[in-house]
Amino acid sequence: MDGLNASEQREFQGRMEKKQMKEFMTMYSNLVQRCFDDCVNDFTTKSLHSKEEGCVMKCVDKYLKGSERLGQRFQEQNAAMMQSGQLPGR
Amino acid sequence: MAEKLLGKDAAPASVPKPEGNPALRMMGLPRFKFKLPSRNWLIFWAITGSFTSTLLYDRYHKKRAQRKWCNFVSHLAKETVPPTMMPRKTTIFLAAPPGDGLRPARDHFHEYIKPILVAGGLDWEVIEGRKEGDVRAGLAEKIRKLRKRNGEKLSQEPTEESEEKENLDDLLYEVRQRSGVTEWNGVQGDLVLGRHTWKEYIRGLHEGWLGPLDPPRPAESPDTPPADSSPAEHPSSEAASDSSPKEEPPAPDPPPPKPAKITPKPPYITPKDYPSSSAPPSLAISMSPSLPVPLPHLLGFLNTPTRVYRFLTRRHLADSTGRSVAALVLASHSRPYTQSAELASAIDPDFAPNDTNTAPEGAVTQTSEAWEQEAVLKKEEKEWHKSAREPNKDEETRERPWREPMTIDSRIGQRMSQFELESGADEEAAKVDAEKRLEDPSLVDKIRKWTGFEKQGKKGWDMGLEGAEDD
């Protein structure tokens, strides 16, 4: 990263942003796909039933909290790796 | 075997009918002769059959007992935990039983304890001991770390060897604090497997809380108690430790272990220095409750009958272990250990005369009162391999917490507590289990499923969503 000049830095930033955006969108569409498949199962009306709505809320909650927890653990492991210079637990 | 035994009607007493069953004969089937198998075969089948059926019966009921306690705690696994909180983490203490390796203790944990912890949605960490003293060292180290975290300072520079591991743990702790991840806000709990581990556990608790934070100096002469090396940390202890060692007899029976290169780390404090050391300020009013769990472990060829009997009655063990582990998982109730004079006569008759001689001044008053902790799982000690009781050879400086009597300081003893099930829990567990068993598929359903003739349930779009009714 240090050996880059200004334009390359910008290019790098741009690419990173794009990548992050892409990752976020993948996660989002995954979330939507999963929760839709699992919860929405009545196509006789265009509105969501209360049952379905509750299910969707719970599903999204579960997914987000799960990924939050996962992210925390990854951060911790990352910090431990930076510290020791190797995989933790070795 | 069954047909052969059932064929009583073909007893040789009646006149032999050469024709046999006319219908079968007309069909061209050979004539079957039913008779009892020979004496030897009968003996063989009787022994094999009774052993097998006893075993199957036992394992069936063992599974049921375990399921009962699993069901009893399973509601805890469905509770939600905020994403920034770590799940409850109990500490499991395992040590290789005397005269054996770590495997039996581990197996016992996997077989009888783990299923219930898993059903209750618990996380755990294990402090394992391969040698006598490992558990003691591990627990003491853990407590010392906690004390350092609570702001106590070492009086000398930390040595190089232990820094690597400490840094990693501290780092993890720091990262968690920074990102707002909190520890579980309830009781954590300790599970101690077996009397030998229990003895080490008690030692470890005392060493961690009453001992100094600085490691003992390696070139120390055996007659200076290690507590003296840390007068800077416990200024008040200096006067007390000066006076008490003088009154000791010149040759106390537990020789203070010299620090050696091998594991475990040498103890930072010996039992005779407990009364003279001061408790750290971070010692809470009550400690995390503990749960001693029996580890039946019998070695030796001549004990085969007892071992076979135990092998065939594991159901009782599974039930009692499950019961106590369920108390730990629920953590709804714990009681302090009792302390009474009546117990004193029952405990350690072999060591009673020794006690009065070797105990320092402060402990003399305590010999009359005995702690319940000392009697916990006392029965197991009789079954120990003799190597646990043999004294050290001349050159050996191994620490021997298993054969030495337990020393309990009242500051620690009063703070300990034990997990207990509330009264009526057994009936409750039986009820929950009966309800759960009603939901089980019947035998017919199981066979149907196995053979592929399942009844067609409702289609996916007809079914309600599970758990969606409550809103």
UniProtKB/TrEMBL annotation, chain A:
Q: Which SUPFAM superfamilies match?
A: Tim10-like
BP GO annotations = protein transport
User: Mainly localized where?
Assistant: mitochondrion
Membrane topology, as annotated: Peripheral membrane protein
What the entry lists under InterPro entries is as follows: Mito_inner_translocase_sub (IPR050673), Tim10-like (IPR004217), Tim10-like_dom_sf (IPR035427)
Localization terms from the record? Mitochondrion inner membrane
Q: Which UniProt keywords apply?
A: Chaperone, Disulfide bond, Membrane, Metal-binding, Mitochondrion, Mitochondrion inner membrane, Protein transport, Translocation, Transport, Zinc
Tree of life domain? Eukaryota
Q: Which cellular component, as a GO term, is one annotated location?
A: mitochondrial inner membrane
Q: Which residues form the Tim10-like domain?
A: 15-76
Gene Ontology MF: a single term: metal ion binding
Q: Which Gene3D superfamilies match?
A: Mitochondrial import inner membrane translocase subunit tim13 like domains (1.10.287.810)
Presence of keyword Transport: yes
Q: What is known of its domains?
A: The twin CX3C motif contains 4 conserved Cys residues that form 2 disulfide bonds in the mitochondrial intermembrane space.
Q: What does this protein do?
A: Mitochondrial intermembrane chaperone that participates in the import and insertion of some multi-pass transmembrane proteins into the mitochondrial inner membrane. Also required for the transfer of beta-barrel precursors from the TOM complex to the sorting and assembly machinery (SAM complex) of the outer membrane. Acts as a chaperone-like protein that protects the hydrophobic precursors from aggregation and guide them through the mitochondrial intermembrane space.
| Family affiliation | Belongs to the small Tim family.
Q: What is the annotated quaternary arrangement, including any partners?
A: Heterohexamer; composed of 3 copies of TIM9 and 3 copies of TIM10, named soluble 70 kDa complex. Associates with the TIM22 complex, whose core is composed of TIM22 and TIM54. Interacts with the transmembrane regions of multi-pass transmembrane proteins in transit.
List the PANTHER family hit by this protein, alphabetically: MITOCHONDRIAL IMPORT INNER MEMBRANE TRANSLOCASE SUBUNIT TIM9B (PTHR13172)
Q: What is this protein called?
A: Mitochondrial import inner membrane translocase subunit
Q: What is the lineage of its organism?
A: Eukaryota, Fungi, Dikarya, Ascomycota, Pezizomycotina
Automatic annotation (TrEMBL), chain B:
Give the top-rank taxon of the lineage listed in the UniProt record for this protein: Eukaryota
Q: Where is this region: Disordered?
A: 209-282, 377-415
Q: What is this protein called?
A: Mitochondrial import inner membrane translocase subunit TIM54
Q: Where is the composition biased (Low complexity)?
A: 226-243, 270-282
GO cellular component terms, A-Z: mitochondrial inner membrane
Organism the protein comes from? Lepraria neglecta
Q: Could you provide one GO biological process annotation from this protein's UniProt record?
A: protein transport
From the Swiss-Prot or TrEMBL record, state where the protein is found.
Mitochondrion inner membrane
Topology relative to the lipid bilayer, per the entry, is: Single-pass membrane protein
Q: Which InterPro entries match?
A: Mt_import_IM_translocase_Tim54
Keywords noted in UniProt: Membrane, Mitochondrion, Mitochondrion inner membrane, Protein transport, Translocation, Transmembrane, Transmembrane helix, Transport
Q: Which residue intervals are annotated with compositional bias (Pro residues) in the record?
A: 213-225, 251-269
Where is composition skewed (Basic and acidic residues) in this entry?
A: 377-403
Similarity comment text for this entry: Belongs to the TIM54 family.
